[in-house]
Amino acid sequence: MITPPRVHREQAGLVGKMIVAWLLMVVILGVAAIDTASIAFTKFKASDVASAAASIAANTWRDTNSDQRACNAARASVGQADPDAVVPKNGCVVNQATGEVTITVRKVATTLLASRLPWTQKLANPLVTETAGPSVL
C-alpha cells in the first residue's frame, strides 16, 4: 500500500494566504480606481465651471471695461455653479488688448484615500484654467 505524501508544515495555509493576498490586491486596485474616477469627474466639473465663468467675465469686461467687475462676475458665477469650487487669489486675469479673461478654479475631489496621503494630495485638489473671449453677438 502506498501512502500519500505528507504536506510539509511550511505549506500549511498557503492557499488561504494566497486568497488573502489576492483580496488585498483587489481592494487596493478598487480604491485606486474609485479615487481616480472621483478626481477625473471633479476636474471635468471644475473645467466646466471655469469655462462658464470665463465667458461671463469676458462679456462683463466687454460691457463695463472693468477688470474688477469682470472678476467679481466670474467669482459669483463659480460660487453659484458650484459652492465647493473657488477662484484662488490671482485666479482671474483680464487681457485688456483682446478682452480675453483667464479663470483658474480649484475644487477638492471627494476621495477615499488620495486626499489623505501627502504625496497624492495635490492630485486630489485639481486646479483648472480656462480662457474665454467676449462673445461677438
Task: Offer a quick outline of the entry.
This protein is mainly α and 137 residues long. The protein has helices at residues 14-64, 67-81, 121-124; strands at 92-94, 101-106, 127-132. The chain has one domain (11-132).
The global form is rod-shaped
How large is the share of residues in beta strands? 5-15%
| Number of DSSP-assigned strands | 3
**Structural classification:** mainly alpha
In round numbers, the mean pLDDT is 91
Over all CA atoms, what is the radius of gyration?
26 Å
Number of helices: 3
**Regarding quaternary structure, how should these chains be classified?**
single chain
Distance between the termini: 97 Å
Helix content: 40-55%
Strand and helix order: HHEEHE
Arrangement of strands in the largest sheet: 1-2-3
Tell me the domain tally.
Answer: 1
For the biggest sheet, the summary is: 3 strands, antiparallel
List low-confidence stretches: none
Explain this structure to me?
This protein is mostly helical. It is built from three helices and three strands, in the order ααββαβ. Strands 1-2-3 form a three-stranded antiparallel β-sheet.
